[in-house]
């Protein structure tokens, strides 16, 4: 069906966006065909009267793990053991795939029309990507990495990443990823908050520089960009010196790291959300150990510092909320924009630009989505209030449009405890 979105206040997703009124967005076959005055003859279109509400591009979440739901944990799980159990039979795999599909749908219903997955169960993410594109599943556009590459004892090894003991094993997995037609490659170069067993050592280097270099060289030759989990200055240095294109998370940044970012032409995917509970919640809430809370604070401060330094030095930044970590749900990406404003100092307009047009550009799909422009996909969301005034306007969207398909007043089941605790930091 052809649609005409009228009587709306348009935020087009561009860097200098301002509210535009008196215009009508025309959509045919899922594509924005024109933006015309509201007085235009709309014969042949179904008119969608936005009644003065705000319409903008759908959000783009650049760091997602579709295998997790963000449920708070009383103690650490053995993720490797859990994934082996989930993937051991056709029945359990079918149940897990249904769960993953449901989580992807939650992303869409919350206003996220594109996601970039950076570590998942087997080849679920590319399979779901293709089913959504074919219209047999409901969900956001997916850019998928499938399983990442880690090392024995490394971050997420054996769960959403394979454990490559040597370079040939890492390259063999890269070949398998090619067969699965992934969109990007993910490395787990350092440990994370919960991997560290002592205070002050989160983000310990796990993957050798030689392995990073070998994978990046081959991935680039095959036409892929490489993203990497990195949570220490040493990890950032190793990643950038050896060819990584996007640093996921980040760490406290010095002048040498700034120069490496610029020399490499790399970008930062900042993820303030996952470390915040470990750093700022009382341990009686998170059930974290003293060591985990200490290290959570180290990582939180490192990610915030990295974001601030990137903004100050014109290093491109995108946003992801590392969904799947405890307390981080598939429907709460809007909080990452809010934290980017609150902790990194980005304006509301720049945060919205970062999560729309800028992310699309850096993900390589800027010609397809990310802004309200003629020729782009009709990936849109509608809110009652103006997010340029307050990003919390994105918390509940009135309408989602995914490639021209309208979902009016989407409903999501939310976790009350998660909402209540995270709301204390708004």
From TrEMBL:
Domain (Amidohydrolase-related) ranges: 54-406
Name recorded for this polypeptide: Amidohydrolase family protein
Keywords on record: Hydrolase
Pfam families: Amidohydro_1
Source organism superkingdom: Bacteria
GO molecular function: hydrolase activity, acting on carbon-nitrogen (but not peptide) bonds
Keyword Ribonucleoprotein: no
UniProt source species: Wujia chipingensis
InterPro entries cross-referenced by the UniProt entry: Amidohydro-rel, Metal-dep_hydrolase_composite, Metal_Hydrolase, Metallo-dep_Hydrolase, OTAase-like
Lineage of origin: Bacteria, Bacillati, Bacillota, Clostridia, Lachnospirales
């Amino acid at each position: 069906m052809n649609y005409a979105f009228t009587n709306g206040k348009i935020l087009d997703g561009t860097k200098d966006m301002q509210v535009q009124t008196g215009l009508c967005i025309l959509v045919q076959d899922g594509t924005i065909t024109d933006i015309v005055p509201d007085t235009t003859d709309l014969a042949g279109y179904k008119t969608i009267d936005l009644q003065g509400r705000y319409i903008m591009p759908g959000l783009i979440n650049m760091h997602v793990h579709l295998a997790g739901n963000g449920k708070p944990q009383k103690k650490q799980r053995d993720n490797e053991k859990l994934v082996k159990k989930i993937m051991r039979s056709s029945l359990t795999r079918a149940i897990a795939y249904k769960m993953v599909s449901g989580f992807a749908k939650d992303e869409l219903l919350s206003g996220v029309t594109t996601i970039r997955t950076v570590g998942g169960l087997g080849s679920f993410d590319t399979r779901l990507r293709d089913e959504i594109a074919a219209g047999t599943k409901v969900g956001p556009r997916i850019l998928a990495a499938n399983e990442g590459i880690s090392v024995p004892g490394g971050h997420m090894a054996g769960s959403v990443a394979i454990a490559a003991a040597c370079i040939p094993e890492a390259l063999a997995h890269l070949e398998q990823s090619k067969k699965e037609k992934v969109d990007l490659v993910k490395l787990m170069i350092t440990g994370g908050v919960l991997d560290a067993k002592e205070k002050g050592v989160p983000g310990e280097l796990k993957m050798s520089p030689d392995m990073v270099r070998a994978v990046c060289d081959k991935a680039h030759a095959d036409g892929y960009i490489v993203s990497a989990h990195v949570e220490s200055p040493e990890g950032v240095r190793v990643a950038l010196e050896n060819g990584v294109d996007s640093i996921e998370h980040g760490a406290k940044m010095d002048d040498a790291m700034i120069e490496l970012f610029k020399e490499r032409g790399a970008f930062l995917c900042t993820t303030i959300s996952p470390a915040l509970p470990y750093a700022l919640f009382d341990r009686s809430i998170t059930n974290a150990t003293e060591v985990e809370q200490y290290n959570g604070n180290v990582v939180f401060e490192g990610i915030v510092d990295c974001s601030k330094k990137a903004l100050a030095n014109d290093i491109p930044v995108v946003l992801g909320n590392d969904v799947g970590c405890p307390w981080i749900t598939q429907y709460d990406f809007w909080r990452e924009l809010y934290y980017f404003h609150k902790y990194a100092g980005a304006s509301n307009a720049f945060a919205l630009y970062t999560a729309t047009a800028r992310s699309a550009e850096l993900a390589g799909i800027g010609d397809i989505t990310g802004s309200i422009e003629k020729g782009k996909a009709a990936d849109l969301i509608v809110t009652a209030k103006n997010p340029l005034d307050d990003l919390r306007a994105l918390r509940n969207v009135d309408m989602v449009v995914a490639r021209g398909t309208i979902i009016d007043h989407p409903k999501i089941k939310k976790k009350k405890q998660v909402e209540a605790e995270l709301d204390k930091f708004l």
